[in-house]
Amino acid sequence: MGINRYLVKSTFVSALGGLLFGFDTAVIAGTTHQLTVVYHLTPSLLGVTVSSALWGTVVGAMTAGYPGQRFGRRDSLRIMAVFYFLSALGCALAWSWGSLLAFRIVGGLGIGGSSVLAPMYIAELSPAKWRGRLVGCFQISIVVGILLAYLSNFLIGGMNLGMAEWRWKLGIAALPAFLFLVMLFFIPRSPRWLALKNRTQEALEVLRLTGKENPGQELDSIVASIHLESSAAAEPILQRKYLLPIVLAVTAGAFNQLTGINACLYYLNDIFAAAGASNYSAGMQSVTIGITNLFFTVIAMSVIDQFGRKKLLLTGTAGVCLFLAAIGEIFRTGTHQGWLIWMLMAFMGFFAISQGAVIWVYISEVFPTRVRAQGQAIGTSTLWVMNALISAIFPVLAKKSSAMPFFFFATMMLIDFILVAAIYPETKGVSLEELEQRLGVAS
After folding, report:
1. Which residues contact 128 (CB under 8 A, 6 or more apart)?
2. Residue 376: CA count within 13 A, CB half-sphere
């Protein structure tokens, strides 16, 4: 079967949550200098300002399952859209540093919640044949959101808005957030959630609308799966037999952030400024980095099933390690600053084809179905907590030495390369049942 317009529309609307995710996390890069001046921020307080949204993201990701289960994926995404809208408007109108932090935390709740709910909604609406590519639209939309954030910062930066510039940069996200909220009223509920709530006629209608070849048979399959899950006793994940999958998920989440990727995204303008770039030049170079990220993410999504997860991780991690060390050397010696943009583009490209593309797929594959939700929560929470910690510490380290953070991240990537080579299994072309056998977690 193909994909019809109804399915495309539903995927597009829910993936807008990813676009706002990317936009809201990256837009701060264009405001760090003004925020430092306006609120007299020390490097440590700047770190608190940038990472504040990420602590909201941790809470949002860990708690999104409850409203998603009770109110449904679509209706819970509406709540996330309201969070996005209130955060953007609140940041634009912030009357103090404390109020700015509060509204950034609210935005973080939206980011964390949508990072769980939107892929879940798309997966439950999609036919099996197209599920990987349609869920991949969420990752693509995140990267598009990052690019739009840099482009928006660049354009607003050229409007000569003075010390109100940061308010416009943070507040502009209210427009797509409002659009996201409105469009969520024109897509259906998840058929799986409807079946879970015994609303089988509604579920059947959604399956028909999304173009399922045999909606009745599909509904029977969903109902049987729900009965099987509900009859199985909840199994705790903290057991010896799950040690290897837990180690894989935790290290994948932690080292994804120990690349320094989000520290670079959030402080990109500051990194270019430290190398002597003007505000205009830093803004333009940030857009170039965003384009590079999008280009290589699209490539990675097209080859992940052919090339393999482990090979991508090894290739990309080696490249990330090399170019992080090169960036550190540029800052250490204070020479060849003109090469910085090229080194950052190479770093971004190698990250996008490996850590960026593989992380979500890999974490979802290494756990058996009966504990997959718990396992994904562990891996995802590790990623967001590490993201928040690194984002808070980065400006403090960079103040002492611009080179130090990059040499640290390069060292972490060397360790990660060895770890991936030694213990990570290749999951390409391996059924989830066979993978359970290989990992020693089969029932």
Report:
1. none
2. 20
